[in-house]
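Table S2 (text version). Query chain:
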Amino acid sequence: MVESKHWDFDCRTIAVIVGMVFLTAAAGCAARRVPTGGGGAPEGDASWYGIAYHGRIAADGSRYNMYEFTAAHKTLEFGTQLLVTNLSNGRTVKVKITDRGPFVEGRIIDLSFTAAQALGMLNDGVAPVHLEIIG
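Corresponding structure-token output:
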């Protein structure tokens, strides 16, 4: 015979437990929405990556396709949509975070080949950008 245990909580105890769960969840969500992580500055240098990584598995489990509008960021949640603006020429592009990086000090985002091309930064390799979360 299976014996069940009966927990006797009053409404106040249940309310406190539920409140703690929601506060913990809300704190976790807020921590994932920091615009650029680390220093918190939405501006910095962007770089790009292309053929050497084309077809490899990205950190989110998808295959990196250098012809899609994707990017790598150190802390933003996978799937985050960003508007990236090249501060040198005013061009903008929308990208989705699918990977982790960049791993070069001073850079805040690594863009796919196509995103970098749209921003006009292929030749220079690095450009100052502004990041804005849009979804």
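Notes on Table S2: The longest helix spans residues 11-32. The first strand starts at residue 43 and ends at 49.
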